[in-house]
Amino acid sequence: MSNTPESQDPEDLRFTRLRLGHHTSQLRPGERVPFGHVLFAAATAGCAPADVVSRLTALGYSDVELPGVPLPSTVAREDALLLKADTYNLSWMGLDEPVSLRNLVAAAGERGLGPAEAARRLTALGYTVPAGRPLPETPDSRDIMLIRTDPRGSAEFLDWDAEASLRHVFRVARELRCDPHTVATRLLALGIRLPYTPEPDDALILAHPGAALGHVVTVARETGRTPEDIVARLAELGADRPSTVPDSLDADDLRLISENLDGRRPWLKVNTVVGVQLRHILRAALATGRTPADIAARLAELGHWLHENAKLPQVADPEDIRLLETVDRSFLDGVHLEHVLRSASLTGRSPADVAARLTALGYRLPDEVDYPEVCGAVRG
Amino acid sequence: MSYVQHARNFHGLPVLTVPPYTPATLLADAASVAWRLQSGPYPTDEDPDVCWERFTGTVELEKVRALVLGYGMDSVTRLTDLSSRLTGLEAVFLGDIEDEEEMISSIEQSDLTPLLEAFPGLRELVVRGGAGLEFPVAGHPGLRALRIESGGLPPQVAENVAAADLPSLERLELWLGDDWYGGGTTVEQLAPLLAGERKPALRHLGLQNSPIQDELAAAVAAAPVVPRLTSLSLSMGTLSDQGAEALLHGQPLTHLAELDLSHHFLSEEMMLRIWTALEPAGVRVNLIGKQERDEEEWEDDDEEDGADGRYIAVAE
């Protein structure tokens, strides 16, 4: 067999064509041999990197990329794979440019190493890892997601010294289903700058995006801070925050603004289009012994107004609540025959009764129908 | 609201999506959730194989009761390869993919025979997507719930499900879909199912999302399987007054607890007739989703596509 670059000798191919999973590192005649290929060939063949260089040179691959440090006498497969670039196909990091943060955290994550340790190993192999930057010792395979700013196309990643936006922090937290404070502190550990300084309370403050008044008040209590302070911090962090924070809170207020009327999450979401649901007001009135009008007035002060089309009954009737629980239409929607029949079915009331009561509560029923008086059977 | 959405609960468990690159050890107890695995559409999203290996390498697979496989997690082989470790697996959802990720008509499935053979303890199976799907007539002895969601279910699959031995099956839902997207199941192909054969435990039947919903309603009106059902769904299809009339004139349906006709083309008069005929007898009738015939399409109908301005809920 000739020792030409096109050699198909299996012994030669052990050094010129390297398989890794579904991908291949294939040397091409006339092209420079990447250092990563040399180390991976050495690790795969179980020989010294210098021997690989000699063999490749003998095969005609004279242009071999080599570091400015002595070659290691042996190399482990895991270390050789640190040199793999974070690309879809198998390619190797070049020695002639600094290791990007993307390649570093991808390599560290895939090998289960902390970024600091991966940087030390790459440096020892002759790569340039930008110096003077703090890097975490703890491994976290999620790092690569933390620095990805745009997944489209060939994707974009934050590099050394970059600044992450608040929007980025929140988006990553959502993708990884972790709290934004965890994302922020890890980004800082990776040397990424932030437009704010993370504080320990942030984990609590940012724990539930779309911060509601109830969240602000309970976090204030848990942290010993004022609600105004929490809102100010949310504003500083660019997070959603309630538009209304009353000077003082009544004893019932937290119950009123909690969906289950228990003073806990989930908190009532402010609906700026159709307002608070009438059934919530009636349930709150029953739960607190106050009148629906009183509840509606207080909720309005807390940022939850009732739609102007709603006709608030003077007394909260459990039958109304049961009926309204079957209605998923707002005061702006039309309640059609299909909805009336469904409510009648679920409540055991006649369609005529349902239609009349919904009309009395302010709903719009546009269909010209003679609603039947017959009731559905009572079900267990 | 789209009918094709990610499952939030499955097999009585909350669905927990494994976030990318996140070790499952940071998440929940293996038995407490239905695990959802997926990858993203971009080249720099986590490789589905890596995600799968990380999950199977860190979770106590013996404790896993329910798996939901989403985008990028082509499915059956992954599961069968690990059947010796997934010893507690009771429920599988194949292809939990939303429209924004991939249209239901493009979701590729495969032959379910190896899956059903490898998991004799399987109790619930949901499949989304009909392309490439095959279902064995041999059936499964323990399966209690089967739902196949499709914009166009291959007729052979429907025929095989109808003919399959599924002695424990209590709930069966088939979204039959449009001919244009690979559907085309006929009433005749469902004959063993409608006759009540080979599925003695069946209590809920859904023959849904069909462009021949009226024909199905007429068939159901006389089908021997109906008396043993407690609930029936003919929803999501092109049901018109014609099909509803057949239901009203067919065998009694008053033993049913629920009749789901949602997404329909019934007139208001017919809605009231159906409701007043069945509700007082104790049947909860769902008539939500009244549709209007596309008059332009109806007038332009060239009789070839047979669409006549009525469309099923899920097709493309």
N-to-C series of helices and strands of chain A? HEEHHHHHHEEHHHHHHHHHHH
Q: How many distinct beta strands of chain B?
A: 12
Total DSSP E strands of chain A: 4
Give the largest interface: A-B, 34 and 29 residues
Task: Quickly count the domains of chain A.
Answer: 4
Helix proportion of chain B? 10-25%
CATH second-level architecture of the domain at 9-229 in chain B:
Alpha-Beta Horseshoe
Examine the coordinates and then state which fold CATH places here, giving the name of the CATH topology of the domain at 9-229 in chain B.
Leucine-rich repeat, LRR (right-handed beta-alpha superhelix)
Strand composition percent of chain B? 15-25%
Show unreliable segments of chain B: none
Structure at a glance:
The complex is a heterodimer of chains A (380) and B (316). Chain A has helices spanning 10-16, 35-45, 49-58, 77-81, 101-111, 115-124, 143-146, 166-176, 180-189, 202-205, 213-223, 227-236, 253-256, 278-288, 292-301, 318-324, 337-347, 351-360, and strands spanning 17-20, 23-26, 148-150, 156-157. Chain A has 380 residues and is mainly α.
What does this structure look like?
- The complex is a heterodimer of chains A (about 375) and B (about 325).
- Chain A has four domains: about 10-95, no CATH class; about 145-235, no CATH class; about 250-315, no CATH class; about 315-380, no CATH class.
- Helix content of chain A is about 40%, strand content about 5%.
- Chain A has helices at about 10-15, 35-45, 50-60, 75-80, 100-110, 115-125, 145, 165-175, 180-190, 200-205, 215-225, 225-235, 255, 280-290, 290-300, 320-325, 335-345, 350-360, and strands at about 15-20, 25, 150, 155.
- Chain A is elongated, with a radius of gyration of 33 Å.
- Chain A starts with 9 loop residues before the first helix and ends in a 20-residue tail after the last helix.
- Chain B is α/β, with parallel strands linked by helices and about 325 residues long.
- Chain B contains nine helices and twelve strands.
- The two termini of chain B are about 15 Å apart.
- The longest helix of chain B is centred in the first third of the chain and has 11 residues, at about 50-60.
- Chain B has a domain at about 10-230: Ribonuclease Inhibitor (Leucine-rich repeat, LRR (right-handed beta-alpha superhelix), Alpha-Beta Horseshoe).
- At the A-B interface, helix 17 of A face helix 8 and strand 12 of B.
